[in-house]
Structure of TRAP transporter small permease protein:
Amino acid sequence: MAVGRAGKRGVGLKGLTHRIITAWALAGGVVILLVVAIQTISVITGAFGNPLPGDFELTELGVAVGVFCFLPYCQLTDANVTADIFTSGLTQRSRAVLILLSALVALVFAAIMAWRTWIGTLDQFEYDYQTAILQIPIGYAFIPIVISLLLLVLASLVTLAESYRDIAHPQQERM
């Protein structure tokens, strides 16, 4: 899939899935921009001897949330890192088989991670884990991470279905 799937949004449930996942990735970008702003303010105020307290805690939480927000979009748009040098000589159907296998691995990985991260989220709240300086409950950062993993499950299902269609009908163009 040299072109990728970004331009093939579709309509109905598939289109809704693309819009939700794209909006979620953009929200992750906003979180990363906020982290950059906090770090910039901390550096500037630190130059005058008064850095923002807990800036590294906010950075840790923000980057974790932001990165997980990008995962479903990368899966859905075929933007994950690939070794195209090994697959460039393969037929469209052979590439579709490899994409199907990778979508299956992503689906299993995302489902297990969502399940275990949800359990971890409950533990974070049960044991009242907080950041050291700002006393922010860490469980709140886990909630968008679990949502991201659930969206990754959804994106993996979409790419799995698309790959199956490419295997069954290699010349048929998707909408």
The helical segments are 12-47, 55-76, 84-87, 92-126, 139-168. The chain has a mean pLDDT of 90. Residues 12-47 form the longest helix (36 residues). The radius of gyration is 20 Å.
